[in-house]
Task: structure prediction
Amino acid sequence: MRNTFADTFYEAAKTDPRLCVVVADISPAGSMEKFRREFPRRFVNTGVAEQIMIGMCAGMAMRGLRPFAYTIATFALFRPYEFIRDDLCYQDLPVTVVGVGGGVTYSTLGGTHHAMEDVALASALPNMRVIAPCDPEEAKAATLWCIGQEEGPVYLRLGKAGEPVITGKASQPFEFGKVRMIRDGRDALILGYGPTLKMGVDAAMALEAKGVSVAVASVHTLKPLDRAGIAALLARFSKVVVLEEMVPQGGLSDAVKGIAWEWGARCKLECMSLKHEFIHVYGSHGDLLAAHGIAPQRLADLVQR
Amino acid sequence: MSANPRVENPSFDAAAARRRCLRYRKRILDVSQRVGALHIAPAFSCLEMTDVIYHALLRPQLDVFLMSKGHGCMSQYVILEDLGIMPTEEIERYCTPQGILGAHPDRGNPGIEASTGSLGHGLGMGVGMAHAEKLKETGARIHVVLSDGELQEGSTWEAAQMAANLALDNLILFVDLNDFGGLERISEAHPAVFPVLAKLDAFGWEAVEVNGHDAAAVYGAVAGRRGRRPFALVGRTVKGRGVAFMEHVPIWHYRSPNKEEYAVALRDLTEISS
Result:
């Protein structure tokens, strides 16, 4: 995902001299090396200093550039939060804050590196838009959207490198602000975002073998949320499961429950998210998700319950 | 670190600056009579520096001024009014629902480049602006007025480092060293904030210290900078300068004078020579 971001950004930067990157000294920024070599002055590394990463982006945007701040999600969003609020959101500047490793992606690095609350915190900010693509293809489309928009700040939540493509057979293209069906079905729907949605696709395939037809939709744009689109899906399916790699508060789970209430949805609704706890477990990304209760079998059970 | 290189510039009219600043102080006191609070003292301490920026340094349509110490914005508002940029009716409607001006500057208001108020944000934005102007090769300079309280914010030093790393010789910082935070005297409560000049120098800046109420000295130091590094003018100032009973008294950080105090303040005001 981050390589897709880097390649997409590099290609666009060749023709748009306003595009710049401000990173805060993280190794994943190595994927930006091609851009850095070709446009050394448009690549700024502030070092381990995230407040100035955001402050510089604000100043650059105020003088007509289109900067992207780029670092690990916890440091992109949590550390300089008030700078994102005041400099970017209050002033409504076209800056994209890219958080790599959203959720518990960095599964061996401990809680300091887990962005478990990022979608909720980013969504709470007026003027901020929030996008969390589920695979490299969607990351490319989302990146292009961020590059093309002039209106205001965006939080772009990415995973890491090497995620599989799960939107290859999607009948609908990525459209900012619209929920996107990436696999259709009849009996149940899994709604989610980010790389964790792969678990939803896997569950749908496994259940298909048992004769259960499960649809999967990517809610890549978490803010503004496609409330009407989600309401229509709640009306269409008798069973809906929300899957998200985020704490239970302030994310898609809460939002879908709110939509269900407002629109009088009749479907059964289940939510699967990270626990609202710091968990001291180290291992693979899957191990961490499982420790939080996000696991393929449990997902399949929820879909069928 | 240069030792106060006072560059005499015959084009800078110090007497005119003194007359203007007397007028601005009166105007700020006038406005204070219509609102409960207005940050008089912090505006008075940076008034001469802000005056020099607007009247002698900013090149129209090119350079940028950013008030990092947002609570000093009354000084900026009255100068913008004097320049015909800020409508007088907006000064009259200051801090009312009918107006657009509050006690901190908002981006988008006439002559206001950045929304500040939360301390420690302005220099970082200034660094981004200066870097952008370098990339665009416009030759524009960015001027930032910073409070000494903001020297306590870590973000200010993140910005100071990056300004030097990027060799932003188009960035000019004015530190309003009035030695008061909102609560108490900084040199007593937080002596390690000092020495300021040596810190900026160690961070890779060209830094000069002058009397911040001596407009000619402020102008001379900036005009005489070597200009290969980001430049900091450290202005020794007095919080509340111009009204004797407000000088060095923390309560005037925020309070507006009552009628009697206002009358005394007006009587007190004289041109400040240095």
Notes: The CA atoms of residues 16 and 66 of chain A lie 9 Å apart. The radius of gyration of chain A is 19 Å. Chain A touches chain B at residues 20, 41-42, 44, 46-47, 49, 51-52, 54-65, 67, 82-83, 86-87, 90-91 (CB under 8 Å). Chain A has two domains: 2-157, 180-304.
